[in-house]
UniProtKB/TrEMBL annotation:
The lineage of its organism: Eukaryota, Metazoa, Ecdysozoa, Nematoda, Enoplea. Pfam families: WD40 (PF00400). Belongs to the WD repeat SWD2 family. It is found in: Nucleus. One of its GO terms (molecular function) is chromatin binding. GO terms for biological process: RNA metabolic process. Its main location: nucleus. It comes from Trichuris suis. It comes from the Eukaryota. PROSITE patterns: WD_REPEATS_1 (PS00678), WD_REPEATS_2 (PS50082), WD_REPEATS_REGION (PS50294). Gene3D superfamilies: YVTN repeat-like/Quinoprotein amine dehydrogenase (2.130.10.10). Keywords: Nucleus, Repeat, WD repeat. WD repeats lie at residues 167-199, 316-335. This is Uncharacterized protein.
Length: 399
């Protein structure tokens, strides 16, 4: 049964070219994305490009999309890198972007259920996976966690405009979802203080974990380990194949500076060496996966007390990107030496350009060396020549 309204840009072969020239932001009309020359995302794969520090510092806006009238509240990239999806709770919309063409693939509206988190299912089977490697494929699936019926997770076909499967088990709002790279399993946690492990082909959960506290979840890049980050300031690591045996590692992180913050998200770094915790008090925590010890405490960005700010790793795990309340993108170089005996890193650099509203959602797409960030506007950032102007967190001029 179709339950979403559909608005598909079927013939979008052209997109507005928005980019920076020196310090002037302008629109150069409509041209095909393949004709954008040096701004073409299709040519910017990691196989063809090694991202140096200067290239990261000089990333600028190549494209922007003004599809949402309310802020984007969730973002995800599929494993192939070919698509990025954003969800807006206010618009009750799901917008799918083609990263190769630099266009909007489709926009769907769930007026009945609303939209909370959105996550791709990794490529697995055609009826259950996100196979959006090119526009000729017939199936694309996204996990949609919706509101007000937020205790049910729905599997949505973006091309058939219908829900394929319903995953029921939670009795309160779902607040975190993580998917294995192969799409075979995914985790969910809710305000009911339960964490479920699901097989994507089965409607009922395979495993239930009760932690007696609010929890965020993440799965490592090899789908061997998953972590739960609980509101009691405890990190638990599980073997995904033997999670019923309980956690094989437990890290209690009740330091003084952590006690004042609420965790808003958790992620493994791509190389699995770090666990990143985002908070609502202006800090991003990086823990050593093997020991649970604090590796770095990232700060120096604008934030609003009690509000979630998203963050992500570069593909090689050497940099962390963060949104901010001032609309700018802040970046920390994890290879930069810190003061002896200190874990505090308060000197990020800032990308050229900004959002005009708070930026709270962003994801890095390593396939195209592409950073995607959203407020009400979704922006595609790509590397620029190394002689571009560089802003630092201490010399940013007010617009």
């Amino acid at each position: 049964m179709a339950v979403v309204e559909r608005s598909v840009y079927r013939n979008w072969q052209t997109v507005p070219e928005h980019f920076w020239s020196g310090e002037i932001f302008f629109t150069k009309g409509f041209r095909t994305f393949r004709e954008l020359g040096n701004t073409s995302l299709g040519a910017r794969t990691l196989e063809q490009m090694h991202l140096t520090k200067d290239m990261i510092k000089n990333m600028e806006v190549a494209l922007q999309f003004k599809e949402n009238s309310h802020p984007v509240t969730s973002i995800d990239a599929d494993c192939s890198g070919s698509h990025v999806v954003v969800g807006s709770e206010g618009d009750r919309s799901i917008t799918l972007f083609n990263c190769n063409r630099g266009t909007i693939h489709s926009a769907l509206y769930s007026k009945k259920y609303g939209v909370g988190l959105v996550r791709f299912l990794a490529p697995h089977q055609i009826l259950h996976t996100a196979t959006m490697t090119d526009s000729s494929l017939k199936w694309s699936f996204i996990l949609v966690i919706t509101n007000p019926f937020a205790d049910t997770i729905r599997l949505l076909s973006m091309t058939k405009n219908k829900y394929i499967r319903y995953f029921k088990g939670h009795t309160d709002k779902v607040q975190s979802v993580a998917v294995t790279p192969n799409g075979e399993y995914f985790l969910s946690s809710g305000k009911d203080r339960l964490t479920y492990l699901w097989e994507s082909r089965v409607k009922v959960p395979q495993t239930v974990i009760n932690l007696d506290s609010g929890t965020h979840v993440t799965i490592d890049s090899e789908a061997k380990i998953f972590a739960t980050a609980s509101s009691d300031s405890v990190i638990r690591l599980y073997d995904i194949r033997n999670c019923l045996k309980g956690p094989f590692a437990l890290y209690d992180t009740k330091e003084e500076f952590l006690a004042r913050s609420n965790w808003t998200g958790v992620k493994f770094s791509p190389d699995r060496n770090y666990i990143m915790l985002t908070t609502d008090c202006g800090y991003i925590l990086l823990l050593n996966t093997s020991t649970g010890k604090l590796h770095r405490l990232l700060t120096g960005f604008e934030y609003k007390e009690g509000v979630n700010i998203g963050a992500c790793f570069l593909g090689d795990s050497n940099y962390v990107f963060s949104g901010s309340e001032d609309g700018r993108i802040y970046v920390w170089d994890l290879d930069r030496p810190l003061r002896l005996g200190s874990n505090l890193d308060f000197e990020p650099f800032v990308l050229n350009g900004r959002h005009h509203h708070p930026c709270r959602c962003l994801v890095f797409n390593p396939t195209y060396a592409l950073l995607v960030s959203s407020c009400k506007v979704t922006k595609f950032w790509t590397p620029r020549p190394s002689d571009a102007k560089i802003e630092t967190a201490t010399n940013v001029e007010t617009e």
